[in-house]
Structure formats: C-alpha cells, structure tokens
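Our preliminary data section would be incomplete without showing what the modeling component actually yields. Below, a chain of 560 amino acids is followed by its predicted structure, encoded as tokens that our downstream tools consume directly.
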Amino acid sequence: MKKTTLIIAYTLLFHLLFAQQKDDKQLAIYFDKILSEQFKTDDPGIAALVSRNGQIIYKKAFGMANLELNTPMQLDNVFWVASIGKQFTAVAILQLIEQGKLNLQDEITKFIPDYPTQGNKITIEHLLTHTSGIHNFSGMPDPEKKLAFDCTPNEVIDFFKNLPMRFAPGTQWEYSNSGYFLLGYIIEIITGKPYSEYLEENIFKPLGMTNSLYANNKRIIKNRVGAYSIGDNGLVNSRPLNPIIIFSAGAIQSTVEDFYKWQQAIHSYKLVKKETLDKAFKRYKLTDGKETDYGYGWKLGYVYESPSIWHGGGIEGFGATEIYLPKEDVFVVVFSNCDCNYPKEIASRLAALASGKTYEYKEIPVEKSFLQGYTGLYENQKGQQRIISVSENQLYSQLGRGPKSIVKPYQKDMFFFDDNAMFTIEFSRNKKGAIEKLTTKKLDGNEVWDKTNKPLPNQNGIKVDEKILETYIGEYEIPSIMTFSVTKEQDRLFLQGEGQERFEIFADTENKFFLKVNDAQLEFVKDDSGKVAKAILNQGGRQSDARKKIKSEFYFTIKK
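Predicted structure:
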C-alpha cells in the first residue's frame, strides 16, 4: 500500500514538473518575442534574467554590448546599475545597526559633527527613506562641471551641505541622492574603511558576486559594456561618469547573474536578519501619518495587483530595473547600456508573465450611461487633480489639464490605460452604489483620489490683457534647481526651462496659469511695490518658489 502511494505521489510530482517545464518553455517564447521586438540586433541592448521560486527560468541577452567593436551582448556583461546600488548602501547601514555601531534614530551630526542641519534633527532613517529634506545635489545643473574629476567625498558634501533645506525632516518624501551620499560617508567614518572596500569585504566576496564592484574608470574590467545616449544625429558614446560624485548613491557595476545572487542572499537573510530586513520593505510614514512608497533602499508598488519590491536606475549611458514579487516569489532584473532604454515597463511585463498573469488586459463592453457615473474631478492628498471624462462611449483620464489618456474596462469598476497596461484605475463605491473615489495602481505605488463636487476646470483658459502679460516676462530661478524664462508673443505667454522645449501657458486668472503638456501650474506674485517678484511653480503635488531675476542679471546668447 505504501509503495503504491509513493508511486502515485511520484507520478503526480512528475506531471506537475512536466507541466511547469512546458509553461517555462512557453514563457521563454513570450519573453523572446517581447525583448526581440524592442531590442534590435545592431542597437544597444539588454541583459535580462527571470527567476521563480528561487530557480532561474529565463536569462538572455539582446542587442550589442559595443557598437564600435560590433560585439554582441552577453549575460556576463558588466553594467552600471545606477540607483539600484542604493540597496547595497542600505544593507550596509542595516548590518552596522545589527552590530550596534549606529541606530536608525541617530542624528547625522553624531557622525558628521560640522554638518549644518539648519536647526533640524536629521536622522539615519530620514536619509534611508528620502525624507531628510536635504537638497538633491544631482538635480542641480551639471554638478560634474563644478566638481573636479578627482574630487573627494568631502568636497562633494561641501558642494551641497549649505543649500537651503527643501522641507522639515520627515514631513515630505523627495528623492535625494545627497542623503545616500551621506550614508556612504557615514559608513566610512564608522568602519574606518573606504565605502568600496566595505562592500567588497562584506557583500561581494561573501556572496560570490565576482563580477560586481564599486565603479572604476581606470581598472580593466572584463566584459564591461559600452555606454550610449541619443545625440543630435543618432547614437553617441555617453560621457564618462565620475564614480566619486555618484558614490554610495549608485556607483556600482554588476551583471544580471550577480544580481540574482544578491536577491537570493537578501531573501534568505544571509546579510541581515529577517526582522531587520522587514523594516527595509515597509512603507515609511511621514509625520502626518501618510505613507510613502519607499522603505530603505527599495521602492514599494504593484505589478497587476501583486505587491512589488523594486527599484530602477537611470544614469548617462545606462538604464536598469529590478522587481521582486514576494507573493509569487518572482524576480526580474534587466540592465540596458543606453539611457534611451529605461527597462521599467519591460521588466514589469516579464514579472507579470512569470507570475501567471497576462501582460495584456481584454477590454469588456460597457454602456455609455454606465461610464457617465465615473466622470468628475478627483483630488489626491497632494492636492493634484485628475479629471475623468467621457466622449463617444470612451472613458478618459487626465492629470491636471495635461493630455487625455484612454482608459478601457477589463472588470467592473476596473480600467487599464490604453497606452500603458501596467497602469490601472479602480473605482470605489459607497453603500448607495455611487462612485466616491478611485485608486491608481502602478509599479511606483498606489494612490487614492477622492471624488469632489467641484466643477471641471476650464480647459482652454481665459484671455488676459497684454499689458499684464508683459509684467510676467523675464527669467526666473528656483535656487540650485532650475531656471526658466517667460516670454510673450502677442496675447500668448510661453514658458521654457533651460535646455528644454518652449510651451505655451494658459490663464486661469490674471496671475495663475497652467500647462497642457503636464499638470504644472504657475502663479505670479507681486511684491509690496506692485512689481512681479516671483512665480510659484506647482507640479506633481510639490510647490517651489522661483524668484524673478532683475534685468542686470539677464544674459542672452543669440543664435543665428
């Protein structure tokens, strides 16, 4: 009887494994189709790896590793991973916490006594979660031009430390490479070792990540890929990157196979304990109780309703994305050697397929009268607006007064974006059956929007007297962030950021304007003398003051 039971059990297991292998072969066909359509043989390429239940089910390279040498991409090619490298910094900090050498609530002045916190309490946890309020120095215009190629971490910190705080620590979330730069510097202070040496001894060597290293421009690195960008006349070699400026915010080079080793080690708790790592995968709460979509070195979002732990990296010459779906135990990593190919959507599709989901929704028919119930103006906690409208039996979503996007139903009260199936909307009803809110779901995280009774805003704007428009003409500066100009042609006003396209802005009132290319809004503010002194830029739920430069500060370059 026992023997019969064993035979039956073995037979069932055999059939299950056979079915799994068959599914994996079918998946490989889908993966090949998706990747080969986007990455052509003679263009910059990618390396991709997919695992499920701890086993690699797909790994392949597409395109070229080096265009000049005509070298095809291989799986063991070495890429810059950019901001994904923040994970190594975060784990290093967690290791030091477990060793009792620092605490999440330690103030950074404990390790950098002369750091000017401007009266704020900035903690290690604030740096890990991008909630410190410290200015993101890499968002400034070309820091590379103002820092020598052989600069030191101290010199980089001196470059940004005296900039004004963006907000009080813990009150907002804003991505900041400065925060992760400081974490790397603190690692060096505590351990007495260079950041690169700490990673080599405590992460790369113990895990057998033999093709991973702190980025180095001089060292001969076997199988290092070329790096490409789009120039005026097509592809060009990207300019060399300075590892010192990027440092612990993303100066890591690696392969997709090494990242699989990293992933396995993290989730088998080889580097830090489970209770420590759980904090890294938990949404950080701001002082007002709102949750962010970031933990410690990892972003938290969704791939087709499945919770995801992920991060992306984008830098000159490279794009990278890694995604982990904990419920399905699916891991995907994709590295690209052109900044023209940010592989977030590709990686999301691979993750969806590997977890048993289709990467394409099927539209279902819905009557126009039913669609009408979704229409209205919705607002999120940041004060952003989303307009849902209907035209010719088609539902549209519009962020602010930016471009409209078609959304199509695939289940009751659930819609997907026609131009991005990874982005979905789910409507919620009250007890009476009326729509009261919607939730947008994407890899970056969920966002709730409450339905309001407010009228839909004017889409075309109002006319403003030309003499009033003339007072707005000039250059404006958001300190250490950007400059932009406001110009006029007859009765039309235009905004142009430095090195960017020019866009028309439309008037809501005499001094409040909006763009139609995105959800940005601009409000002109006068001083006590009645002259325009600044403009307040609102975009993405964030507000920034841009002071108007006086005429003596203007300088122009005339191009013939």
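Residues 50 and 332 are 5 Å apart (CA to CA). The chain has a mean pLDDT of 90. Preliminary results of this kind motivate Aim 1 of the renewal.
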